[in-house]
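Practice problem: Stomatin-like protein 2, mitochondrial
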Amino acid sequence: PLYICTATTHSLIARSLWVTQAQQRWASSLPMNTVVLFVPQQESWVVERMGRFHRILEPGLNFLIPILDKIRYVQSLKEIVIDVPEQSAVSLDNVTLQIDGVLYLRILDPFKASYGVEDPEYAVTQLAQTTMRSELGKLTLDKVFRERETLNTNIVHSINQASDDWGIRCLRYEIKDIHVPPRVKESMQMQVEAERKKRATVLESEGHKEAAINVAEGRKQAQILASEGQKTEQINKAAGEANAVLAKAEAKAKAIRLLSDALAEQNGNAAASLSVAEQYVSAFSNLAKESNTILLPSNSGDISGMVTQAMTIYGSLAKQSSKKLESVSPEWAMEKSEELVPPAQ
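Answer key — structure tokens:
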């Protein structure tokens, strides 16, 4: 009982001191009744007549009755900035935080602000602190940092619900600083470092993945280009070989045609005999170079006889070709036989 009485006594003394300081603050800023008064812009003077509310003086020229009228309150209609002291609050995950803020408010009704509460600024400051504690108790530590805007909005809404009877409108509330315990701060730093390492690892793996994909794409494109190159090369090579075969065939046909024309001319048989004799001698000269075994005819020394034998073989082949041509078409066979067998000279 003694402890309860002592606590109650201290509370009453503190309250009486606070009321006295508030009254002194209001009394020290109150203007005197000089009958003719000029009220500044954005201010409202609350006048009492014989201790009872009389009216509110508007900005500009005003007249009061001496002795009867007294200026009791002076309210500023400007936006007021109040520094909310630092206070402790416990989050939803039982982390003790030290938070301070700034409160922006404006007096909308001078009558309610004067008679609805003893000290409107002090009342709003205490309401902001208690509301902030209540709102922080609904959030975890991580959400406190991520949802500061939402937290400020909720505090403003809660303050306006209670301050309507005081004629005060809270415009906004901003949290200045949030201080966490050292151990929690170290844990948060470790968490941030782990998150950064995780992001770095993920980015590095994505880089390796993209590099491997690029290398595979490059190899694929290289193989495609190489196969297309080989295909083009084979096509060009085949075309070249075909053109070469055609050129050789055309050249051989032209040579045969020229040879037949030459044989059809005068002394063609003599020229053919000379060509056969030259080829005969050339064949015998190369035969010894290419092989150790040499097959020689019995009359190898009789060159004229061998030339005559070659010409006889040539004549028999020409006659056989003419017979085959006659069985196909007489006219065409006649033309071909004339080309193959030269006329007798």
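Discussion: The two ends are 166 Å apart (CA to CA). Students who identified this feature from the tokens alone can consider the problem solved.
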